[in-house]
User: Which sequence fits this backbone?
């Protein structure tokens, strides 16, 4: 018999590394936007050379950027995506329970969370809708 949702962990439900926007710290905002559009997701994870999570760029970050900056959009697109991302991203471990993950999402009012190893290496993401199906 399969696992019920209540005893699954995030490793059972997370989206693999090749199936969401993954950017490197030197990638441009334009590249991040293209990747977010390609995957149809409202965020991009940003990693350093070692694959450690160093930022998350969200749709909300983009809205704030457009509202608060007076630069023309084409000028902004060449900047590094990391410049506009959250630099202290909330993340979870693959062993996290679905209940704890949902509680974290509720607390921080997010619908996607990066999943990292105990060395902070990005290994996946979990989306709210995958937790409630």
Assistant:
């Amino acid at each position: 018999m399969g696992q019920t949702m209540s005893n699954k962990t995030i490793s059972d439900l997370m989206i693999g590394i090749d199936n969401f926007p993954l950017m490197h710290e030197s990638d441009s905002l334009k590249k991040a936007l293209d990747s977010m559009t390609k995957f149809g997701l409202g965020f991009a994870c940003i990693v350093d050379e070692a694959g450690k999570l160093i930022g998350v760029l969200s749709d909300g970050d983009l809205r704030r950027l457009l509202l608060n900056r007076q630069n023309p959009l084409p000028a902004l697109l060449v900047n590094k995506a990391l410049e506009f991302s959250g630099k202290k991203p909330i993340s979870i471990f693959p062993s996290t329970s679905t209940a704890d993950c949902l509680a974290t999402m509720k607390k921080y009012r997010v619908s996607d969370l990066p999943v990292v190893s105990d060395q902070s290496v990005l290994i996946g993401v979990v989306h709210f809708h995958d937790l409630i199906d």
